[in-house]
């Protein structure tokens, strides 16, 4: 028999989403630790960062890339 098994591209898409949101968590932790000294600038900077990720997630969701069939 054939030892190779083809995996769906969906597995790789889910893996990429995991990596992106894992990196987001890596950036959020140090920001949360030093939030007070950063002040409003740090708050708005992180809000823009999270906003970019949310816009990307909404785009991918709208395209149907998160549908598992």
From TrEMBL:
Lipid bilayer topology: Multi-pass membrane protein
Residues that span the membrane, as ranges: 12-32, 38-61
Protein's organism: Desulfobacca acetoxidans
InterPro entries associated with the record: NADH_UbQ/plastoQ_OxRdtase_su3, NDAH_ubi_oxred_su3_sf
Known catalytic reactions: a quinone + NADH + 5 H(+)(in) = a quinol + NAD(+) + 4 H(+)(out)
Protein name (database record): NADH-quinone oxidoreductase subunit
Keyword annotations from UniProtKB, A to Z: Cell membrane, Membrane, NAD, Quinone, Translocase, Transmembrane, Transmembrane helix, Transport
GO molecular-function terms, A-Z: NADH dehydrogenase (ubiquinone) activity; quinone binding
Family from the record: Belongs to the complex I subunit 3 family.
Enzyme Commission (EC) number: 7.1.1.-
Subcellular location: Cell membrane; Membrane
Purpose of the protein: NDH-1 shuttles electrons from NADH, via FMN and iron-sulfur (Fe-S) centers, to quinones in the respiratory chain.
One Pfam family of this chain: Oxidored_q4
Highest taxon listed in the record's lineage: Bacteria
One GO CC term, this protein: NADH dehydrogenase complex
């Amino acid at each position: 028999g054939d030892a190779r098994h083809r995996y769906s591209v969906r597995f790789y898409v889910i893996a990429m989403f995991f990596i992106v949101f894992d990196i987001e968590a890596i950036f959020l932790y140090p920001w949360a630790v030093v939030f007070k000294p950063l002040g409003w600038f740090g708050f708005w900077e992180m809000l823009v960062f999270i906003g970019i990720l949310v816009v990307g997630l909404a785009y991918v969701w709208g395209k149907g890339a998160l549908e598992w069939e």
